[in-house]
Design brief:
Shape: globular
Strand content: under 5%
Structural class: mainly alpha
Number of helices: 15
Radius of gyration: 19 Å
Distance between the termini: 56 Å
Largest sheet: 2 strands, antiparallel
Strand order of the largest sheet: 1-2
Length: 247
């Protein structure tokens, strides 16, 4: 969209109200107002709105609006480098790939820090309250109930710790990703009897939700590797291409 289109969208009262609600931290109201305002715009104006959301660091609206307005190949808008410092610290602390964390967080919450899943998981990395409380005890973090999970720094700390433990247990990012989504007890049952190519193993995951989730996370990791490190790498360069049978 042209500069004139973007400026016109920015001056619209509905968009301005959504921006002010977002700035004030009234995120649920802000998202509702944004979605209502966006529904009245043309496709070209929606593209301009996606650009504006990105400028305002409103990561979820940037990604969603870019996708629905047809900017599906604009990876900067659809895969924002949100919560960079917190993720960098978490990756260093837990010895994880920061691009993997970005891919997982985007798939879990689309960077909405206050979102709740139907199952009750909360926050950026969609941590279940029981898991959050258990992990908080292990790392000596003060637990203030479920409100702890909507605080970005706490959620990322808890979620990255739990993900790192899954990686230690399963020794492969794809298995750890599946365990993060479906639970480690299920992934224990999904181990192949013989060594199996990564793509074949992912395709064999019996839960459609988990199968699609693992594909999204690993695909997003490739995109974030390019956005963050400036390197175009194939999936086999980032993850072992063989799932080893458990001895």
């Amino acid at each position: 969209p042209t500069k004139a289109v973007i400026e016109k969208v920015a001056a619209m009262p509905g968009i301005e109200i959504a921006r002010l609600l977002f700035i004030e931290g009234l995120t649920v109201m802000a998202r509702r107002q944004w979605n209502f305002a966006i529904s009245k715009l043309t496709e070209e104006q929606q593209k301009g709105a996606a650009i504006l959301a990105n400028r305002w660091d409103w990561h979820s609206r940037s990604a969603v609006t870019a996708h629905h307005s047809g900017l599906t190949d604009d990876y900067v808008l659809r895969h924002p480098l949100a919560y960079r410092e917190l993720l960098q610290k978490a990756a260093k602390r837990e010895n994880l790939s920061v691009t993997w964390l970005w891919g997982l967080m985007r798939s879990e919450s689309l960077f909405m820090h206050d979102i709740r899943s139907p199952a009750g998981a909360l926050g950026l990395m969609q941590v279940m309250p029981y898991t959050g409380r258990q992990v908080a005890r292990k790392i000596n973090m003060r637990w203030k109930g479920v409100k702890t999970l909507v605080m970005p720094w706490a959620n990322i700390r808890l979620g990255s710790y739990y993900l790192a433990r899954q990686l230690e247990r399963f020794n492969h990012p794809a298995l750890a990703t599946a365990a993060y989504n479906a639970g480690p007890h299920r992934v224990d049952r999904w181990y192949p009897k013989n060594n199996m190519p990564l793509d074949s193993w992912v395709a064999s995951i019996p839960f459609t939700e988990t199968r699609n989730y693992v594909q999204r996370v690993l695909s997003a990791q490739v995109i974030y590797e390019w956005l963050y490190n400036g390197e175009v790498k194939r999936l086999e360069e980032l993850n072992p291409q063989l799932i080893l049978a458990r001895k």
